[in-house]
């Protein structure tokens, strides 16, 4: 693929749409899980709030200041995990992570596969995974702060 | 700095000749000629530097200060000659004032740790400016925590210049040291360090100048500015990575306890009692980056041959052109409007985040940096998360600035 | 170490091919072929290392971790790939356990300062051996002075082996850390670090191993030896100057406070509160020696291609030959007779001081080192001022050892 | 000159003689000036004892553990300065130092010029100057310890 092609693959229409109009942006009063994620590289930050009931992610909201990729990724994630069980969400993260770090089947990822273009931009993979690392933290260590540095 | 305006920038032929000295400038990136505008992060290296390092390993390599054999003698002479070159470059009084470190960050840590641990007492104050790089903040936080000293911050005005009179309010008999960047890596602000140092000395405070950005951009003269400490990195001065310099006025360095312990920094060692070596060796524990230091000398001689006043004039022309061109775009805002600016322009464009701007510029071969530039406190002060930053070197051209401006069109195409 | 005796040393053709990889070995010194027998001070570099460093500057140079542009991405990948190479070389569990420093001395200082300042209390004990290099003594003296901890010394026997049972007497609940060299630079003694570490762990003490001399001489496996800290220098492992490694077991590194402050080691910075980055970045403040680290990878891959067990066997053959030849001279005394010895032979000749011996050997192109070798406490223990030391590398030959022996005749001619 | 020639210039007969049979070696009970000199490079050490009376170096002794050059230099120095005024000794040091660090007239240095061969061996210059640095310390800062490092 030409680099021009790779670039438009990175900034697909769905990414641009979600970055400009993030879904589930805002604050969640009923949240019982919360985590803050940082990308130390650029200072991007996300605050993720979840309402988990009986093992199901009943609601999700986030506040994010970041690049198009990180905002779109948070927005797409929020849609993908809402209503899912914690286990399903974690499986999704594993698949998502595989998609970004190696070649893998993206068919089961639905809309999330829009972020597969990030693979060709290693320095941007962290932007795409920040929301997911924050989710992981919120589920496992509520009220934690995490970074994406381990993806370096 | 009026004398500088008398200096002519490079002719096209000169600039072409300079560019030819830097192998990396011939690279193609994404199928385009590389326009390297990330010089504040690190500079490219002239062939003379690259070749000096390789030649050292091929024909001169040995450990220094420790052997009597031929290679050891050669290596020691080359290493100490480089120290003399640095001394002259900084116009330091003595080679004893020139400590080699691994970089500007380590130079500052050395001062904070060694000088700070000895001279800072609870309640003493360390003054930093709002413009500082993390490397000139965190070492002071660490030593403040250890000693009970307190940080005070010199604020900036709306142009990203240091607040006029701000220092008057901060300086007191509690002020032990002022740590200030010479040229701010986030805004290009050139600070009036000579005046600041005079004012601090009058108040009895020492001054550390972070010269990471200044060393490649403006002539330096320790006697003229009268700094107590001056720190810089070779890799931002067309030299190799892994080499830094710490200048310390001899009378101050003499009073400082050792920082790291090990080979070369001692006079005698026994388990009961160790005595330390003379200056500057007391502060150079372990095998230094011999090849790097030897190659660094070539970098200094390179900029000296061209002349730092001419480099300054060249970068000023580019910077002024870049600021004007960016400000001419209605959706672009340059960050800060300092009275004196050197080689660095940061900006925001309405439709896109700095990271996305940098990725798109990269797609046409224009290398800029995006993010907080290790300036988080400054970003917070400005109420932003980051910027896109273009920073210039001796080899950059107007055409490269034009390509950056051109690239913003592509940013708009994608994001508007 | 019985498995090693099964490994065959190099054939003549192999050795010739290896020598051809090192440009410096072709040098003429004083009109003679260079016989470089000062490898314990620093090794020569294979062309692959020299070329990798130059190639980095020509085609890959940028700052790491901080930019999204092409060169920055390449540089970051190369830098992190090198970390992975080091991880595999040491058989560490995780890249998070590999910290890049400027050298072995800094690695040890980092531990003494960061771990030591947090975990050492007044009266706690630090055990060192009588064989240590100043770099594994002075950092501990500095932190002992700061914390009130106390140094204890593990003595040696008449062979320059660690005194059998010596550790039993030293270890107590006060012992917080044992800092021990893997291979002693003054005598070539290979210490039984696996057993020592097991004994220390059983007593609740941490262990730092100084691997400066071992890394180029013997296969390393962090899982096998179970060290808490392992320090080494690239320049003694056929790599560039200005690069070191510190391995720290992850559970230990996690508890350590930052050492130097600056860019790259932070998560967030504000003047009120700074939070630190993940491992290993928390310990890598400032721009690292990117080119050096990238080139160091080539050095590791070089010794791995040959095999450290074969290098060990080769050096053992040379060392045994050198010890025998030296001991065959009635006026020569080799220093120590360790049970296991690697690549290093120090000696005295009756008629001449080590410095004069080294100068005369140099006059026939044989490079050896003379002096205390940063081993003053060992010299004092042995009742001598210094020695002449020959130390071997992968490329040395029996002929070179013979030239050394031959050179002693000239020493006698002048001094008897 | 060939390197072989330089080597025999370094180890001239007078140097070898003084290194094997150092003059004025020993201890001086009447000493009123004393200094210790170290060469941190190799651990060589010299203890210098002077009896200075009315501005004249009336007697001198030294104890030295070092290489041929450093012992011979101490021995030659002790002979040269005995009976001289402090000013004369200091002038001698300046000339001696010039001889080792640059080309200069050695005629006025007498026997001390035997050490001029050291010039071709920069790493050994410190061996030759150690005794003199120690003398300087003894005269100016009695009971001081000095090193030769500043010659590096
Ligand atoms: C103003 C300033 N200070 C300090 C530093 C730190 O330099 P280094 O990373 O080379 O130690 C930098 C570079 O990033 C800088 O721009
Ligand atoms: C055993 C030992 N430890 C530590 C060091 C220090 O290594 P470096 O000078 O590369 O920091 C050395 C080398 O001189 C050594 O031989």
Question: How would you characterize this protein structure?
Answer:
The complex is a heterotetramer, with 2 copies of chain A (152 residues) and 2 copies of chain B (416 residues). Chain A has helices spanning 3-10, 13-20, 68-81, 86-101, 125-140, and strands at residues 33-39, 44-53, 56-65, 144-147. Chain A has 152 residues and is an alpha+beta fold. Chain A has a single domain (3-147), classed as Sufe protein. Chain: A (Alpha-Beta Complex), CATH 3.90.1010. In chain A, helix 2 crosses helix 3 (68-81) and helix 3 (68-81) crosses helix 5 (125-140). The radius of gyration of chain A is 14 Å and the shape is globular. Chain B folds into 2 domains: 4-43 and 307-415, Aspartate Aminotransferase, domain 1 (Alpha-Beta Complex), CATH 3.90.1150; 50-304, Aspartate Aminotransferase, domain 2. In chain B, helix 8 (222-225) links the parallel strand 8 (206-210) and strand 9 (229-233). The mean pLDDT of chain B is 96. The interface between A and C is medium-sized, with 13 and 17 residues. The complex binds pyridoxal-5'-phosphate (PLP) (2 copies). One pyridoxal-5'-phosphate (PLP) sits between chains C (40, 103-105, 133, 135-136, 181, 185, 210, 212-213, 233, 235, 374) and B (263, 286-287). One pyridoxal-5'-phosphate sits between chains B (40, 103-105, 133, 135-136, 181, 185, 210, 212-213, 233, 235, 374) and C (263, 286-287).
What is the element layout, followed by pairings?
The complex is a heterotetramer, with 2 copies of chain A (152 residues) and 2 copies of chain B (416 residues).
Chain A: H1 3-10, H2 13-20, E1 33-39, E2 44-53, E3 56-65, H3 68-81, H4 86-101, H5 125-140, E4 144-147
Parallel strand pairs in A: 1-4
Antiparallel strand pairs in A: 1-2, 2-3
Chain B: H1 12-20, E1 28-29, E2 32-33, E3 35-36, H2 47-59, H3 70-90, E4 98-101, H4 104-119, E5 125-129, H5 138-147, E6 150-154, H6 166-170, E7 175-181, H7 193-202, E8 206-210, H8 222-225, E9 229-233, E10 244-248, H9 250-253, E11 266-269, E12 274-276, H10 290-306, H11 308-327, E13 332-334, E14 344-349, H12 354-362, E15 366-367, E16 369-371, H13 376-382, E17 387-391, H14 398-415
Parallel strand pairs in B: 3-15, 5-6, 5-7, 7-8, 8-9
Antiparallel strand pairs in B: 1-2, 4-10, 9-10, 11-12, 13-14, 14-17, 16-17
Helix pairs in contact in B: 2-10, 3-10, 4-5, 11-14, 12-14
The structure holds pyridoxal-5'-phosphate (PLP) (2 copies).
């Amino acid at each position: 693929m030409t680099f021009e092609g790779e670039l438009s693959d990175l900034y697909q229409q769905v990414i641009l749409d979600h970055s400009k109009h993030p879904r589930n942006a805002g604050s969640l009063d009923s949240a019982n899980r919360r985590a803050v994620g940082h990308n130390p590289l650029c200072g991007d930050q996300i605050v993720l709030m979840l309402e988990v009931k009986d093992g199901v992610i009943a609601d999700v909201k986030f506040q994010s200041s970041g690049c198009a990729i990180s905002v779109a990724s948070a927005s797409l994630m929020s849609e993908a995990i809402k209503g899912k069980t914690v286990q399903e969400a974690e499986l999704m993260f594993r698949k998502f992570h595989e998609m970004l770090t190696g070649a893998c089947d993206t068919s089961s990822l639905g809309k999330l596969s829009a972020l597969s273009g990030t693979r060709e931009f290693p320095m941007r993979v962290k932007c795409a995974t920040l929301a997911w690392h924050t989710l992981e933290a919120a589920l496992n260590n509520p009220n934690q702060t995490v970074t994406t540095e381990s993806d370096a | 700095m009026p004398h500088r305006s008398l200096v002519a920038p490079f002719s096209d032929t000169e600039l072409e000749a300079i560019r030819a000295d830097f192998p990396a400038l011939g690279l193609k990136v994404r199928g385009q000629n590389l326009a390297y505008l990330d010089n504040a992060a690190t500079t490219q290296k002239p062939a003379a530097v690259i070749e000096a390092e390789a030649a050292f390993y091929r024909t001169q390599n040995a450990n220094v200060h420790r052997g009597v054999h031929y290679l050891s003698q050669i290596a020691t002479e080359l290493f100490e000659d480089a120290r003399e070159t640095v001394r002259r470059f900084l116009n330091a009084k003595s080679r004893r004032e020139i400590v080699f470190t691994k970089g500007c960050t380590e130079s500052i840590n050395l001062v904070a740790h060694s000088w700070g641990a000895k001279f800072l007492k609870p309640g003493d104050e360390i003054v930093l400016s709002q413009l500082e790089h993390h490397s000139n903040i965190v070492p002071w936080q660490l030593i403040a925590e250890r000693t009970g000293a307190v940080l005070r911050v010199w604020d900036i005005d709306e142009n990203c210049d240091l607040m006029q009179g701000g220092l008057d309010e901060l300086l007191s008999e509690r002020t032990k040291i002022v740590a200030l960047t010479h040229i701010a890596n986030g805004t290009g602000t050139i600070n009036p360090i000579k005046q600041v140092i005079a004012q601090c000395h009058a108040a009895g405070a020492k001054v550390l100048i972070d010269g990471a950005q200044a060393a490649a951009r403006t002539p330096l003269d320790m006697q003229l500015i009268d700094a107590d400490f001056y720190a810089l990195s070779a890799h931002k001065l067309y030299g190799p990575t892994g080499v830094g310099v710490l200048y310390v006025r001899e009378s101050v360095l003499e009073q400082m306890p050792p920082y790291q312990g090990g080979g070369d920094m001692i006079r005698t060692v026994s388990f009961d009692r160790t005595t330390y070596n003379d200056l500057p060796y007391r502060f150079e524990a372990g095998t230094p980056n011999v090849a790097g230091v030897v190659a660094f000398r070539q970098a200094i001689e390179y900029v000296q041959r061209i002349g730092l006043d001419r480099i300054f004039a060249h970068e000023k022309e580019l910077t002024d052109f870049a600021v004007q061109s960016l400000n001419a775009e209605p959706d672009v805002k340059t960050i800060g409007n300092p009275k004196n600016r050197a080689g660095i322009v940061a900006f925001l464009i309405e439709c896109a985040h700095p990271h996305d701007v940098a990725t798109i510029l990269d797609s046409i071969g224009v290398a800029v940096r995006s993010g907080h530039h290790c300036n988080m406190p400054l970003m917070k002060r400005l109420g932003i998360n980051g910027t896109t930053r273009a920073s210039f070197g001796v080899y950059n051209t107007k055409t490269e600035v034009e390509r950056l401006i051109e690239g913003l069109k592509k940013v708009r195409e994608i994001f508007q």
